[in-house]
Design goal:
heterotrimer, A alpha+beta (438), B alpha/beta (222), C alpha+beta (259), A: 438 residues, alpha+beta, five-stranded mixed β-sheet, four-stranded antiparallel β-sheet, 13 helices, 13 strands, 14% strand, B: alpha/beta, Rossmann fold, 10 strands, 32% helix, 28% strand
């Protein structure tokens, strides 16, 4: 049969049973939307969890009290522990001064930054430029999206896309930072040598400079510590407990309990704590459980609807048995009939997939509007405020569609639909015409 | 006393604000112990007339009387009672329930007849199966029967509640000559035994069996 | 009459597929209804035994609030509050009085905190580990999952009913011609649909029971209790609402009764 005729007949059949085809299209569209949501949740939360795992703050053990004369010995021991990326002492771990850059001020933000040390191992991977090496001095690595403010992000301080400054604009240029203590003010210029992905590292406000430079600046500012604390950067969050155990075995710490939220009072130096960034307060464990439950729920829904679709297909085919019989009487071969009906179904699939993408986008918009409204309302009460915060952080999770997953899942969906149609028709067409028309 | 009477009967349909007249000024009486054949070309309104007589459809204007009782204003429950007690239908496509055996198809109308109990139902079914000569096929399903056998089951079902009126819409349309004769003979026999049988058909064979032939042309009876 | 009609509908092979679909739907709906219980018991098993008592104890955060005996009695009347007592902590130079509110279960603490907050009483929790905090956060998603499963289940059942009725359309028309009234036909229609649904329901419930009472407790090492009242009501609603929509006021799946 000519391809043109095939198309013509398939389109004709589409117009035939508009009501039935409408129900089938709606069903297929629903299944497709659910599959897309599945993909989005899976992808978004996985990406988000990965970014949290990359975030340096979340894999830093600190702050540990030490005796300066014994530091070198301890440092050597710790550096020998597998999975440790960086050990920094009191002078290297942070600059004890207010840090502000006028170049990073925008829309009323103060330009406040908190420079952090990095070495060649711990430095974030860059998307442009180069990483920090151990020989560098006055160089700096910036996130590609910068928000420099003295207020941290949260429901009471919401950041819009337009509030961000592009870090890439500074690549190869100089960034001036003013360091202010009670006694001194110093302005130091840094060469911007690299840009890292703020989404990948879940960080929009941390520039990194060489750890030796942190020490130099502290000395320049005449910093005199009252107590000596060190921090340890581990390569992965999952290795935190392992390193913790090693430190305990080496006699460096007395207890192995890890707190997951930064407590305000860190005077108990026997317990190492991770500095949990204020980027989110949903713990990783719960996030993973939520992800798994949602994935299972959506998967089961997709399975139910898929099954319903197959049965509706069977139903539809049996009710239109006479159609098949008549086509056979008119002289179409079984192969021709299969081609026509499968093409008709492919058209239905494509129509429903297109509507599914549109429907998905509309649902996303509605979700965002609902989130916006919840976030903007004045809430009273602890629980209402907590919910509002949760919704704010959820709305920050990137809602993107994984293209690979979408394409593969939609293709599978079409294949299953075609396969079920082919098999059902095959069973009917096996019989003789009289039996088909009964 | 005429069994069925239509007085000044009109039937119109409205399709996209256009009136389509199907039956035009029908005045007719049907009596017991007679076999009527309603002939006409396709589109002349034969099936519509039959549906109206069988209370499946209603006249736009005019009266339908069955046993001198006016049907038009009756409630659904009362019409259903009349269909159950007074009328038996036979169709060209048999319309047997494919998921029920021959016995079960014949018994189906008896369940709503309060005159039957379980024993009398079985007895009557036995009688009807014998009457149409399908003793050996009682536990078979419609798809296992020939066309003629299926129509005989349909006739037996139509007689389940002893109706006095039999309405047959192209009963032999799907049958070969031999089976056609068999069916028409059964229907003639029924009319001779006291029933009013109305057959709508194209087939000229029906005319040979009919006591009276009515021609329907463009909605008008000749 | 009904036996015959039910037998007729079960003879149709496609309806057997619908029974299988209903089995799956009822398993998933019942799992969804009991999901909060599963999640709660899982989280509960993660809280150390020695902290269970503290986990369900709140303290009044505002030191300026002093409750009278009458206030304390009124608080005890609130649902889920088991006891209100004053704890005295001996500090270096003075005595610190803390009012403790003991709740029946740690999962009800945030509800009570909200109620008390609306009354102007700010409270804190004696013990709150990561698991407890995580449980609070997971609740939003739990409800979402439950509602979504029920809606999809109902929708599936509705479409199935519509399909089943469409399949039986000719047989139902036939009944009308044979003298069955519309109300009798509607009765038969509902019975036929319920027969299919009930078979699916019973098999589904048995499988669900096995999963709920044996499989999940063994995997997660917890003991589960079913919320029978909620389960029964939701299962009935999920069946009855689609039934009403599909069958409508009259036998709506048959538009006209002429053959």
């Amino acid at each position: 049969m000519k391809v043109k005729t095939l198309f013509k007949l398939a389109v004709q059949r589409l117009k035939y049973n508009r009501k039935r085809n409408f129900i089938i299209t709606i069903l297929m569209m629903l299944i497709a939307i659910i599959i897309l949501f599945l993909g989005m949740i899976q992808y978004s939360i996985t990406k988000y969890v990965e970014s949290m795992e990359n975030n340096m703050e979340l894999r830093t053990l600190g702050d540990y009290l030490y005796i300066p004369s014994k530091y070198q010995e301890i440092k050597n021991t710790i550096n020998n522990i597998e999975n440790v990326e960086m050990v920094v002492d009191e002078f290297e771990r942070t600059i004890h001064a207010g840090q502000e850059s006028k170049q990073l001020q925008k829309n009323g933000t103060t330009g406040t930054v908190f420079l952090k040390p990095a070495n060649s191992k711990s430095c974030p991977e860059v998307i442009e430029g180069r990483k920090i090496s151990n020989n560098d001095k006055y160089v700096i690595i910036l996130p590609n999206k910068i928000y420099a403010n003295n207020q941290i992000e949260g429901v009471n301080n919401q950041i819009k896309e337009s509030d961000y400054i592009s870090g890439e604009d500074f690549l190869g240029k100089e960034l001036s930072i003013e360091f202010k203590t009670d006694e001194k003010t110093e302005i130091i210029k840094f060469e911007v040598i690299g840009i890292y992905d703020s989404e990948k590292y879940n960080d929009v406000s941390t520039p990194y400079i060489p750890m030796n430079t942190v020490k130099m600046i502290n000395e320049q500012l005449g910093y005199e510590p009252k107590a000596y604390f060190m921090t340890i950067v581990v390569d992965k969050i999952e290795n935190l407990e392992k390193v913790q155990k090693e430190l305990y075995n080496a006699g460096i710490i007395q207890e192995t309990k890890i707190e997951e939220e930064a407590s305000e009072d860190t005077t108990d130096s026997n317990i190492l704590e991770t500095n949990f960034s204020h980027v989110t307060n949903i713990s990783l464990k719960t996030l993973n459980i939520i992800k798994n439950v949602l994935v299972v729920a959506l998967l089961s829904s997709a399975i139910i609807l898929l099954f319903l679709l197959i049965i509706t297909n069977i139903n539809k085919t049996y009710l239109l048995k006479t159609d098949l019989g008549i086509l056979k009487i008119e002289g179409y071969t079984n192969k021709d009939i299969q081609k026509i009906i499968i093409l008709e179904n492919i058209f239905l699939c494509l129509i429903s997939i297109i509507f599914a993408f549109i429907g998905f986008k509309i649902l996303q918009l509605i979700m965002n509007i609902i989130f916006e409204n919840i976030i903007q309302t004045n809430t009273v009460g602890i629980t209402a405020m907590a919910i509002k915060e949760q919704i704010y952080y959820i709305s920050k999770i990137p809602q993107s569609l994984d293209i690979k997953f979408s394409v593969i899942s939609m293709a599978l969906f079409v294949i299953i639909e075609i396969a079920s149609t082919y098999l059902i028709n095959k069973k009917i067409l096996k019989k003789n015409i009289k039996k088909i028309l009964e | 006393m005429s069994k069925i009477e239509i007085i000044n009967g009109y039937k119109e349909y409205l399709k996209k604000k256009e009136k389509i007249s199907v039956l035009d000024n029908i005045n007719v009486k049907f009596e017991k112990e007679k076999l009527y054949a309603i002939m006409g070309e396709s589109g002349s309104g034969k099936t519509t007339l039959l549906n109206i007589i069988g209370t499946l459809d209603t006249l736009t204007q005019g009266k339908l009387l069955i046993n001198d009782k006016e049907i038009i204003n009756l409630k659904d429950e009362e019409k259903a009672k009349i269909r159950m007690k007074e009328i038996g239908f036979v169709f060209q496509n048999f319309y047997l329930n494919p998921n029920m055996t021959v016995e079960e198809n014949i018994m189906q109308p008896m369940y709503i007849n309060p005159e039957y109990n379980r024993i009398s139902m079985e007895e009557k079914t036995e009688e009807l199966i014998k009457m149409v000569g399908l003793e050996s096929r009682r536990t078979h399903y419609p798809k296992e029967l020939s066309g003629g056998e299926e129509q005989r089951v349909a006739i037996a079902r139509a007689l389940a509640n002893n109706p006095e009126i039999i309405l047959a819409d192209e009963p032999t349309g799907n049958l070969d000559k031999n089976n056609e004769i068999k069916i028409l003979e059964i229907l003639k026999d029924l009319s001779q035994k006291g029933r009013c049988v109305i057959i709508v058909s194209h087939s000229n064979k029906v005319i040979e069996y009919a006591d009276k032939v009515l021609n329907l042309k463009e909605g008008k009876l000749e | 009459m009904i036996n015959l009609q039910i037998k007729s509908i079960l003879k149709n092979k496609i309806n057997l597929l619908y029974i299988i679909l209903f089995i799956i739907v009822f398993i998933i709906i019942n799992l969804a209804i009991n999901l909060p219980e599963i999640i709660y018991k899982y989280y509960d098993s993660k809280i150390p035994e020695e902290y269970k008592e503290q986990a369900r104890t709140l303290y009044i955060a505002d030191g300026n609030i002093e409750l009278t005996n009458e206030d304390m009695e009124n608080l005890k009347k609130i649902e889920h509050i088991q006891d209100v007592k004053i704890k005295t902590l001996g500090m270096q130079d003075y005595e610190l009085k803390l009012t403790n509110i003991v709740v029946d279960d740690w999962k009800n603490c945030s509800k009570i905190q909200n109620i008390l907050d609306n009354q102007g009483i700010l409270t804190g929790r004696e013990y709150e580990d990561d698991w407890i905090k995580g449980y609070e956060k997971i609740n939003i998603f739990m409800n979402l999952v439950v509602y979504m499963s029920i809606i999809i289940g109902t929708f599936t059942i509705l479409i199935s009913y519509i399909n089943i009725l469409k399949n039986e359309k000719e047989n139902h028309k036939l009944l009308y011609i044979l003298g069955y009234s519309k109300s009798k036909i509607r009765y038969i229609v509902c019975t036929q649909i319920l027969a299919i649904t009930i078979i699916g329901f019973f098999i589904g419930i048995i499988i669900f029971d096995i999963i709920f009472q044996y499989v999940i407790p063994n995997i997660l090492n917890i003991e589960l209790e079913q919320d029978m009242y909620k389960s029964i009501i939701i299962n009935i609603l999920v069946t009855i609402i689609p039934l009403f929509i599909a069958t409508g006021k009259s036998t709506s799946h048959i538009k006209d009764f002429k053959m």
